[in-house]
Structures are given as C-alpha cells and as structure tokens.
Amino acid sequence: MPKVNREQLFEFRWSIPSVQKQKELALNLDAPHEEIQALTALYRRKRIALEDLKKSLLQRAFAGQL
C-alpha cells in the first residue's frame, strides 16, 4: 500500500468555496429534495387509491355487480 510522507501531505492544496457559495449550493440541493419528497407523497397517495379501487372492483365482481 503506497504511503505519503508528511511533506507531500502538507504540500497538498485544495480550494474551499466561500460561505456564500456554499449557501447557494445548499439551496440548489434543497429544491430537488423538496420536489422528490412531494413526488414521493403523491406516489403513495395514488398507490393507496389504486389499492382501494382494486378492492372495490373485486368486491363488486364477487357480488355480481359488474
């Protein structure tokens, strides 16, 4: 396994965005997250509605109402 000596490690540089840029990036990540949450909730409601419809149709079919 290769190793890095201290001098090489301490010479390594990277840039960190400003606090303002970090806040902007966080806002850009929050919007899709909220949209995903809304779509997930919609999917759950529609799935429940379809399950209810299926139960209702089966009930009517077995009762001879179809």
Task: Indicate the low-confidence ranges by residue numbers.
Answer: none
Taking all Cα atoms into account, the compactness measure Rg is 28 Å
Inertia-based shape:
elongated
**What's the count of strands?**
0
Strand content: under 5%
Total helical elements: 2
Secondary structure class reads mainly alpha
| Averaged pLDDT | 92
Relative helix content? over 70%
N- and C-termini, Cα separation: 71 Å
The SSE string, one letter per element, is HH
Main sheet makeup: none
Describe what this molecule looks like in 3D.
The protein is mainly α. The protein has a domain at 18-62. The chain is 76% helix and 0% strand. The chain contains 2 helices and no strands. The chain has helices spanning 6-11, 19-62. The protein starts with 5 loop residues before the first helix and ends with a helix.
What's the short version?
With 66 residues, this protein is an all-alpha fold.
Protein topology:
Elements: H1 6-11, H2 19-62
Primary descriptors:
mainly alpha; 2 helices
